[in-house]
Amino acid sequence: MITDKSNDNDFDKYDLDEIEKTIPEINEKRRYWFFRTEGGLYYETFRMNNVIAYGQEDINYSIIKAATDAEKNGVQKAQEYLVNYIKANYTKEQVAKPGQLASQLLRFKNEMKKGDIVIIPSHSSEKISIGVIEDNITYTQTDHHYGEWTECPYQKRRKVKWIKELALWSLPGEFWGMKYSQQTINNVDYIQDILDRDLDGFFKQGNEFHFVLDIQTQHPIPFDEWAGFNYSLDVIYKDVLSELGVDATKYPLSVKIEANSPGAVEIISYAFGAGFVIGVILVAFAGGEVDSKFNITKKGFSGALKFRTQGLIKTIMNYKSQKTFTDILRKSTEKLEIKTPEELNKLLQGGIINSLEENIQIKQLPKNQRKQIKGKQGEEEK
Question: Is the pLDDT of residue 244 over 80?
């Protein structure tokens, strides 16, 4: 099994590095948090201000920091320090569970990290918003009022970039359990796999490259269609690698299946080149013809694909020796209503950079004209 980039050298000749840089990368240490909004009261407040906020105003950051420092200096565990402080300053009627409050405060300030995912629920958890914590700095601030929503009095805050809002009913059952949690901050790492593939359809995590297919049919999945999809994809993948001069046995694929309809299939490769090939096959033969234009736009790169990369894609597009299998793949994809990742569709179907044919024509132009065209492309990249 391929486990690191050094073993990806069979694909080095196809100059895929620039494309790989455009793929979202998920930190393996990223954690996932469900953060309550007082019954939805502060849902819009959090969204409009790009924050989450925690109450218990009498216990400010300086007290939490003192607890953290006590543990760092080997004096006392932070949890124990805060519990003792709470017991000394609050009655049981005011704080029934000192240990729970202490752990929540420490979680908000110390455990929740930059890059972690936060999920907040609206009233009755009809909707959820998903965001990313933007830094490791906790701060104190009141609201900036932009509309007709309830301002939040809580001043202990974390900055969040909200990236998606979804109806809870549209999500798998694993999400529904979150709404019954009683604490303000709840760790929900158990939904990591589901959430990762919902946020990004094509991504890297550690040494793995994940490619997510959405099965959108509402009907039971016929066994022969499912078997046909898997078998034809496997045959085409191995045949294409063979035509590219790559030993397919060195680049096996794994799958994770959400056994529902609708559901999801997550194809995992252990080398970017292999993942890219399977992606192009699916978009080309299952999702329709790949346009001759390619769109790669991300900070740091915006330009024409390298000639050898074009050659790899042309090899896939010219795969004709086993038309039977491409027909089976296409028909089973239509029957199962499989949708390929939007990120890869955009990458391969149309874009702002030159088509394959245009790039070839440019290479045939006189040197001074090629320089002029490259100069214009450079200005567009800026």
Answer: yes
Q: Are strands 127-133 and 156-167 parallel, antiparallel or unpaired?
A: antiparallel
Q: Are strands 32-35 and 117-121 parallel, antiparallel or unpaired?
A: parallel
Phi, psi of 211 (to 5 degrees): -130, 115
- Segment 216-244 shows an average pLDDT of 89
Instruction: Specify the higher pLDDT residue, 10 or 164.
Output: 164
Per the model's pLDDT, the better-predicted residue between 354 and 141 turns out to be 141
Amino acid at 370: R
- According to DSSP, the residues that pair with 32 across neighbouring strands are 117
3-state secondary structure of 184: coil
| β pairing state of 263-269 and 254-258 | antiparallel
Please name the amino acid found at residue 45: T
Both tokens of residue 235? Answer: 């045959």
Residue count of the chain, please give it.
Answer: 382
Give the β-pairing of 202-205 and 25-26. Answer: parallel
Domains plus CATH for the chain?
5-24+200-375 (no CATH), 32-198 (3.10.590)
Q: What is the average pLDDT value for the chain, to the nearest integer?
A: 79
Comparing 103 with 323, the larger pLDDT belongs to: 103
Residue whose pair of structure tokens reads 């994770």 in the numeric block: 256
DSSP structure class, residue 284: I
